[in-house]
Amino acid sequence: MKYFFTLLILFSSIASSGFPQTQPKNPPPIPPLTHELIRDYREVLSKLLALLETFEDKHLAWRPSPGVRATREVFVHIAATNLVLPTTAGIKPPIEPKSNMEKTITDREEIRKLLLTSFDHVIEHLQSSSPAELQKPITLFGRKTSVLFMYVRLLGHCHEHLGQLIAYTRVNGLVPPWSRQQPRRTTPPSP
Fold first, then answer.
1. Of 9, 60, 120, 186, which sits most exposed with the smallest number of CB within 10 A?
2. DSSP letters along 141-161, please?
3. 62-65 contacts: CB < 8 A, separation 24 or more?
4. What is the pLDDT of residues 105-127, one digit of tens each?
5. Please, what are the domains in the chain?
6. What's the whole-model pTM score?
């Protein structure tokens, strides 16, 4: 029996030294700017989902005036843009955006799923893009730019409409969840 184990150990050491060892490839590290963009996209998504839950159904149908997007239409507009704008860089959306999405998607859960799908799409492609891919030239709104700028512009768009939804929240007498957690300052800040 000792002889068997000695041969087994000897064979194992010969086999392991005689064959190349394949190490799993580690993905390249995410560049710092890309990492920051991804973090900001996730933060915006988190706030949008929190606001979506803050609004009651009557608030989702509310609009400040005729011709201005209703609350639910703003959420759908953000998600639809997340799906459409990356196509300028040749990135195919996971679902085909429809031109009438803002009018036809009215259910809270559908809106939530659409937001998640659209942000996952953006983050996944941003995360997997190499620095060279991010510098690839594209045309965006008639302007020569880069894929990276498209992601920056898209993030700005998300923030723009997050601000709009925060205003909708306040006008409807609601408070964004993250503001509820902050104690109110009773004295002015010092210079």
1. 186
2. TTEEEEHHHHHHHHHHHHHHH
3. 62/168, 62/172, 64/168, 64/171
4. 999 999 999 999 999 999 999 99
5. 30-175 (1.20.120.450)
6. 0.79
